[in-house]
UniProtKB/TrEMBL annotation:
Keywords: 4Fe-4S, Iron, Iron-sulfur, Metal-binding, Oxidoreductase. Its cofactor is [4Fe-4S] cluster. Coiled coil: none annotated. It comes from Pseudogemmatithrix spongiicola. One of its GO terms (biological process) is isopentenyl diphosphate biosynthetic process, methylerythritol 4-phosphate pathway. This is 4-hydroxy-3-methylbut-2-enyl diphosphate reductase. PANTHER family: 4-HYDROXY-3-METHYLBUT-2-ENYL DIPHOSPHATE REDUCTASE, CHLOROPLASTIC.
Amino acid sequence: MASESTYVRKGFGLKAEVQNTLTADYDGKLVDLLLAREYTLTAGDVTIRLAKEFGFCYGVERAVEYAYQTRLKFPDKKIYLAGEIIHNPHVNAKLKEMGIVFLKPSDKGFDYTGVEPGDVVILPAFGVTIHDFETLRAIGCVMVDTTCGSVLNVWKRVDAYAKDGFTSLIHGKYYHEETRATASQVEKYAGGTYIVVRNMAEAEDVMAYIAGTFPGGREAFLAKYAHAASPGFDPDVHLKRIGVANQTTMLARESLAIGEAVGQTMERVHGAEYRAQNFRTFDTICSATQDRQDAVNALLTEPLDVMLVIGGYNSSNTISLAALCAEKVRTYHVEDANCIDPEQGTIRHRDLATGKEVSESGWLPASGPLRVGLTAGASTPNNKIGEAVTRVLQTRGVDPASVA
């Protein structure tokens, strides 16, 4: 671990000093009004229903606050950020306005060429890989670590798996910053291995290989998953002992289902005693992610005409929320309020099937009673939620100023 003078994980004791700025940048009056009115706002014939858990989580608040503290603590130092602090374009834009330089990622980690010992580097809420951490420690710069505690909890599981000779089967997106950082934890141990599966379909490939039924055998499996597995991964060797973990922002029920299904497969192929000795699984979805998914499920039991999900298009937890909503009601995942054009009656949104942004007209009926469900990913600030509410009302010809 880096020395106390170059490694900071608990902030600089400047919370009170930055609080007013944070409030001005991210708080939203309309959201406050929704909370005061039991998560319901009615104006004209439009009713907005807000999920009871939404928006900024503790880990995100902490990361953003520490970034603001860092700028205040070091007004004259060059400050870098390893990637994005969180997956929200407006928050990241604010940090850039504060003079924080964003380092660009690559397949081998971030480019630290210009970082010098006198500089400061902020580690994002997702964490960074062991390689990145060691590179920064060697430089000797000040590291401000905002890695979320829920992410650290997953790292502990993966560390224990590797230490005991288990391959980490990670439910996540192999390219996501958090998953890359999590997977790198196996590097602490000689021969540590991992494989990342995006969904149940990919987990089923792993289960098929364990059962000896994967089409094309070893070479076909490696051709399909080499990009998502540790160097030198050999399914004949490394799928004998498995520990399941997950990216903290994935769909919780799918993570749990993958863990149970892989365990059952190992038991069916090798027996119950073998499973007990060679298979482990833990629910490492973060509580904030779970709370937001539970709140959306509760909201979806009510009659809704449309669901609006607000958050970055690259925000995994927001994508999971949108997927849940789409199962029950017509759903639009928008990056921010600017995606809604009241004058034209159009909406730009992330297509849930393709992941690409598309535009749609007439997304809201012109008249008649309307019930709109609303939630936001854990990296979406309240002011952006409030702005979206404003544009929904304007689309229906309701003056937001009349809501008081």
